[in-house]
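Quick look at the format.
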Amino acid sequence: MRPLATLAALLFAWTVAAPPAPAQAPTFDPDTVRAQPLDGGKMWLFEDPPTEYLAETYGFRPDEAWYRRARLASLRMPGCSASFVSPHGLVLTNHHCAQSSVVAVDEGGEGLLDAGFAATELGQERRVPDLYMDQLVAIEDVTAEMSAPVDAAQTDAEREAAFAEAEAAVTARLLADYGVTAPDEDADDYVVQVVALYDGGRYSAYTFRRYRDVRLVMAPEQALGFFGGDYDNFTYPRYAADFAFFRIYGDDGQPLESPEFFPLSQEGVEAGSVVFVIGNPGSTARGLTVAQLEFLRDVQLATTLDFVDSRAAALQAYLDSGEAPEPDQVRSQIFELSNAQKAFGGRLRGLSDPYIIARRAAAERDFREASPEAAAIIDEQTRLQEEKRDLAAAYRAFPYLYSRTYGSALLQRAQAAAEGNAEAAAVEDRPARLERAYLEAEVDALRGYYQARGEALPTPLQGASAEAVADRLLSTSAAASAAGGVADDDPAVVLVRAVAPDLAAFRSASAGFSAREGDLARRLGRARYVTYGGAVPPDATFSLRFTDGVVTGYPYNGTIAPPLTTLFGMYDRYHSFCTSGRDVARCDWALPENWLEAQGNLDLSTPVNFTSTSDTIGGNSGSPTVNRDGELVGLNFDRTIEGLVRDYLYAPERGRNVMVDTRLVQEALANVYDLDGLLAEIRSGTLRQ
């Protein structure tokens, strides 16, 4: 559900997280499990569209005009996807993709996150600082230009340098076609991104038109955008009005002309409708070998969940204390972390399922038989994972040490001082409650490393508990405050230096593993593309893809989930949870007063959310969902927790993606928010004034 923002960047290298699930005895014979044709997923490339597959599956053969419109009407924004929905630069995406923008345009004390925002005329639309949106205007295969220098490099550092040099040459060549010699961060511009597909088995250069004047037009109250709170997150049936509008303006300060856009469908979808989700899926790991998946499951998982759990608990306690001067920012961080808790936990449940591993193993056997080269590479990768297991304790202790976002300021200052870095004094103080919680968590992780290895704790870490060590550091170290200088013999500096050799050894070893792993993945990706071609799409790369699916419910929890939910259900959730003796102000299904007042004016049979078999993942938030005619029928915003396994395997029988129905968007604009001008624009293309 969440955008790929700060936490995502932090966690992507780790891919999955949660404590190891109890061992399950298979209730089937793993040798009888067979791979399915679409196990590699349906995140199709626009440069290699599966037209014949679509024709055979749905009797639908998109032409070049359909693909072009789908590409140009779609947009990428930081961490999310979006799309043009009028010829005047009007953009529709998810509320949770706009959440930080809502906070950013708040002029102080407005409380827009809770109150919502609606500009009733163009002059009221507020520019969002530093927000940009990208439109993919050209694609070129640059495999020949990129592969030769990268393949010739001998080390990871050399490969990075070779990639950067080749990418710079490709970028300069492509930008010259648009008359661009240097990027201008103050104006609309073109940017080029070279994307390594199939782990570097193939390269595509994407040229984007980057729009920098993006203004918030409308966002409902967070109570609607995140209706049901964390309880409903990664679940279905859902009733969330997770949508928001922006507008892109040109360099002339006028609304952008956007001739390629998706008109909103008036008829919508029904059970059995074919839909196409167009967006920028962030990252998948379907190209990993079984040995790599088992290492993720067995070694790295608990570390990430412990990190997320401890920081979420600390922030919640801080928010509950009433001490936070800007509670909306804290709530935004909690939202990000709570989303991660469910996301990574669901992924682990998939990897802990013997059937999923057996199905991946079956696909790997097929690949080995089809390609002797692949078989040899897979064997090398297996041996490498065995080497990594020797550093299991370090992999659990060190990855999040000294985190800039969620780590102790005291330890960050001590680290800077130990390295002779003048930045020690530049680290701002954290609120005392957060500082103590973060410090205890980091100390506990360090103590756990030495205990797991059966080694004595270094003197600075000795004590009855992590809490006792944290107490001692907070009371004796000058690094506890940004106000004081940190001496060379400061207790926190002594601690940092005590663990530095082990940390350095881990970083060196893991960098070596990463280089070898990347080289093997590149060779294996090339073998995969040679063997299967575009029939197996590459792993997600936060670049534009489209996926097909069918609107359908599914069995769950001993009953059946409907393909669509309605406003009847939304109001039922409110009354069932919030007016039956609970505190309405703290109810996750609470509705704002304007929604309660509007109930009599609404068509309660209006669909709110629907679900399909489309192949989506993080980064697809805000993705336009269109029908065969290119009409917008929905906005992707989530997937069910059972569907989190699709990070590693597309299994449509397990879970669904979840979308906002655009009929709900139109009903809300007309009968809750009285935004008739905005509604007229998305229905007839008439620009409001």
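Next, a different chain entirely:
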Amino acid sequence: MKTKACLILFFTFIAFHCNAKNINILEYGAVADGKTLNTKVIQKAIDDCSISGGGTVTVPVGNFLIGTIYLKNDVNLNLESGAVLLGSTNIADYDPMNLIRGVEVSNISITGNGTIDGQGHTFWIPADRSKIPYDRAPEWIHQTKSPRNMLKLEGCKNVKIQNIHLKGSDSWTLHLLGCDQVVVDGISIRNPLQGPNTDGIDIQACSNVRIANCDIYTRDDAICLKNRDPKYTHKVCENITVTNCILTTVCNSFKIGTESLGDFKNIVFSNSVIKTARPDEELAKDAAQYIDVNARRYGLAATSGIALESVDGANIQGVTISNIVMDGAWCPIFIRLGNRGAGEQKKVLSTAGTIKDVMISNIVAYNASIASSITSIPGSYVENVVLSNIIIKTLGGEDEKTASIELDELEKSYPDPKMWGRVLSKSDDTDPIPISGLFIRHAKNIQLNDVQIYVDKDDMRPLVKAEDVEDLYVNNLKTDGNNKGKSVMDFSDVRKATLLNLNFPVTIPWFSFKGIKTEDITIQTLKKFKNEDLIKKDKTVSKDAVRLINL
């Protein structure tokens, strides 16, 4: 009898173990009415599945209301097509302030074609209507207590998030913090364009992350790499690939920074589309009511297409960006090295971080409105940046007064393309940026290969402005005849520059040089010109600083 009892217990354990491998939450009493709180029963299903050795917890068709649930080791949370995990609108149902949480667990996944809906809009306060029209989609305000990150995974390893739909986040949608070996594939993110701080995917201090085939529509940064948490700033955010994505936002599309207390290394962004929202789209309608979309045609567009920012001491190295199409991004390329000492430090560091070894190629950007930029601060340099095979079509129409504006260093300012000037229309209060195409300041070893920049109407600003730049190489830069200012390229204190295969279709001087440090400039043109036809030099530039070669 004793042996028989043992066998019964043994087979009972085996049966439980096998059943736990594939659990349907209905078996645990989940109710799909969108009203009954299912947090405890779904958590119980996840816990039992993990304890028994792991497996799949299935969410079937229906609306299942939940508060905070935790993912556990070796569990796949699978949402069938038509299944919805619906975030509670009662803040008391959240502990901590996330809808789905994973902390230091391994071999976890969220899969299926179902939906996680945070219902974040129920925690927002509308923007101030007295300020209409806004220059872009307004950001509404969080209530004092709200769920914040909808899906947050911290210190997790071997993570897969595949094919699910994430919508209605209160704040950041998918937050990966200190994770390793992560795959995010085929997911969609849908948040209204007025959502406060509703980033799409935030990758903070993670390593070995692959993001592919995602469609993100949100107000704040679409995909952003950060490193700000004191617990993880020693950990390099590295080996990150992002490819085959469609990004729609009114903030930054692909961004490294702003929070940059830890380092970033080996980052790839490729084969993706950045697009502008339309005012008739369902998720844009509320935001569009706050802006004059006719006068401000870029109010529903991205602030920047590509933004690489180190302003809190981080070292950014090894970034490759290629095969990107941008429609309407205000600033196609924004690279900024600063020293604001923000984040947890709240003090200016003795030295800035670094940005170096960056390659950006095969970019098409049209309907731009702010010049791209590669800038640092006095005493520090952005280094080793290559721009190749790039076409930018941007707004023109600015006058001599605009062209004469001198830009401050803004060493401690928040990094944003708007820091250099006005964006949308002449009704804006700020001055416009005094460069139409590309601004380079405090940089070393910068290469422009086969770059084309066109302004849409006559413009008095220089197309390219370079200040305190060493080792500048420009080959086959093209533009149109709408450059009408004092020069096409304006150089100050530029050293060791080689400018090749140039033939601008304009009658104004192609180059202006100033600054006592200007030296070792070689210019090669496709047609024969006299120096005085092409080049202007002020009195500070030595006679032999510039050499012209006609082929």
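Residues 377-550 form a domain with the Pectate Lyase C-like fold (CATH 2.160.20).

See the schema section for token definitions.
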